[in-house]
Specification:
mainly beta; Immunoglobulin-like; 4-stranded mixed β-sheet; 1 helix; about 35% strand; DUF3304 domain-containing protein; DUF3304
């Protein structure tokens, strides 16, 4: 297993850590190889901006990245306000109980012969993820990850 270095200049390119969330859950926090992606990512949104992620000049088979993240409820439904502290604390505890910690090590796709621009992680239903170092916009036909932004969670996730 080969882990990639972060924030090191490389001829292949360096850039920010971004995310696209294809789920109805919030991504409360995430990191790639321990480097923070910074922003909370709401359902069906993109964001991030953590610095920096770079790759070696040449891609090699076996390159991976470790993605750690916390997902949770995105709705503020039932928020009692702050006036009644006990009600607020009970609501906060209920919301925090829904948070889930995740960690996956995934292959880094081959980028040889391509420009690289940091890394983008796609959070998919069933706690699946995909990553890319592509410089293309997700709206561009050349962008390598094709899943629609709004994806429904299946009733049963594959094991």
């Amino acid at each position: 297993m080969v882990f990639l270095s972060i924030c090191m200049p490389s001829k292949a390119g360096a850039g920010v850590i971004k995310a696209i969330n294809h789920t109805h859950w919030a991504i409360n926090r995430f990191s790639i190889n321990g480097q923070s992606g910074i922003d909370i990512i709401g359902p069906y949104q993109g964001g991030g901006g953590g610095c920096c992620f770079s790759v070696p000049e040449k891609w090699q088979p076996g390159m991976t990245v470790r993605v750690d993240w916390e997902s949770g409820e995105a709705s503020t439904k039932g928020f009692p306000g702050f006036a009644d502290y006990e009600k607020y604390k009970a609501w906060e505890k209920k919301m925090q109980a829904q948070n889930r910690q995740h960690s996956q090590t995934v292959p880094l796709p081959d980028y040889n012969g391509q420009d690289t621009c940091g890394i983008t992680v796609h959070f998919l239903p069933c706690d699946e993820i995909k990553v890319t170092t592509s410089c293309w916009s997700p709206r561009n036909a050349n962008y390598p990850i094709k899943e629609p932004l709004r994806m429904e969670e299946p009733k049963v996730c594959p094991k």
